[in-house]
Amino acid sequence: MLSYRHSYHAGNFADVLKHLVQIAILDYLQFKDKPLVVHDTHGGAGLYEVASEHMQKTGEYQDGVGRLYGRQTGVEVIDRYLDLIAGFNDGGPLRRYPGSPAISAELLREQDRLQITELHNSDYPVLAALFEGDERIRVFHDDANRGLKSLLPAAHKRGLVLVDPSYELEGDEAHTLAGLVEGLRRFNTGCFAIWYPVIGRRRADAYAERLVALGTRALRLELNVRQPGSAHGMTGSGMVVINPPWGLDKKMETALPVLHKALAQGGGGWMVKGYGEE
Ligand SMILES: C[S@@+](CC[C@H](N)C(=O)[O-])C[C@H]1O[C@@H](n2cnc3c(N)ncnc32)[C@H](O)[C@@H]1O
């Protein structure tokens, strides 16, 4: 039984990192005209209304996108992210926050394809309705790992696989690792970006290291808004990018200190760590 709903968390500090990295990877992949596929394993509801009861109840977005929206930082990847969010709001005040599917859809070109799995019975129909009629996009009411098996290899050899589990069930980390083994076997030319929470230093490190070990080349990015262990719940989050685009490490080395300064809630820090040959 799934209880996690992303609508309570949309736009929080973890979404800022995740979506900024997603955009940076897609921008890199779209530098060439060749078609690409985006495979989003955990879609959520796709697009979120800031005035909704859920977003207002937690107010998490206020310490995430809310701290940055309306600013120009002079850092390319951050301003690109903020411009894209502004595009969903006609350049005005923050009323809507796009999830990963809406961000990919916004960036999708005629030749590209987006395929999304989402298992939740309430979020799936909302997500499917969002893209109804767009023949470039397919939405499946299915388990992430089943989708990685049945939908890969995709029609195109280039692409991004975004893996953003809710980690709400015991065993979700193991389930994710198993799905990634299958996904990488089927699509070893793809760039895989996997999000993970930091709820305790040791657990996050152990999991991130297992993710990194799945590829020959990987990049680990992390943004902690508080000292791990200093507060109940998530104090930061990270992304492991397997087969990272060239130059993403340098871009994030510039962006993360600025993001940390803007989003910190007292302490924390950031990390950029590369593995394997460039
Ligand atoms: C963190 S949210 C995804 C947010 C989305 N990627 C974004 O950035 O906007 C995780 C989603 O995974 C869904 N989910 C949980 N377990 C799943 C599974 N085994 N397969 C597919 N989706 C699952 C949840 O219902 C939830 O909507």
Give an overview of the whole structure.
There is one protein chain. The chain has ten helices and ten strands. The chain is an alpha/beta fold. Strand 4, helix 6 (123-130) and strand 5 (137-140) form a beta-alpha-beta unit. The protein has helices at residues 13-29, 53-58, 65-68, 76-87, 100-107, 123-130, 144-150, 172-186, 201-212, 248-263, and strands at residues 37-40, 47-49, 96-98, 113-117, 137-140, 159-163, 191-198, 218-224, 236-242, 269-275. The longest helix has 17 residues, at 13-29. Helix content is 38%, strand content 19%. It has one domain (6-275): Rossmann fold (3-Layer(aba) Sandwich). S-adenosylmethionine binds next to loops.
Describe the SSE topology.
Elements (H helix, E strand, L loop, with lengths): L12 H17 L7 E4 L6 E3 L3 H6 L6 H4 L7 H12 L8 E3 L1 H8 L5 E5 L5 H8 L6 E4 L3 H7 L8 E5 L8 H15 L4 E8 L2 H12 L5 E7 L11 E7 L5 H16 L5 E7 L3
Parallel strand pairs: 1-4, 1-6, 4-5, 6-7
Antiparallel strand pairs: 2-3, 7-9, 8-9, 8-10
Helix pairs in contact: 1-4, 1-5, 1-10, 7-8
The protein binds S-adenosylmethionine (SAM).
Spatially, the strands of the biggest sheet line up as 5-4-1-6-7-9-8-10
The residue-averaged pLDDT reads 96
- Report the portion of residues in β strands: 15-25%
Shape: globular
Number of domains: 1
Report the helical percentage: 25-40%
Following the backbone from N to C, one meets helices and strands in this order, namely HEEHHHEHEHEHEHEHEEHE
Number of helices: 10
What is the number of strand segments?
A: 10
CATH superfamily: Vaccinia Virus protein VP39
Structural class: alpha/beta
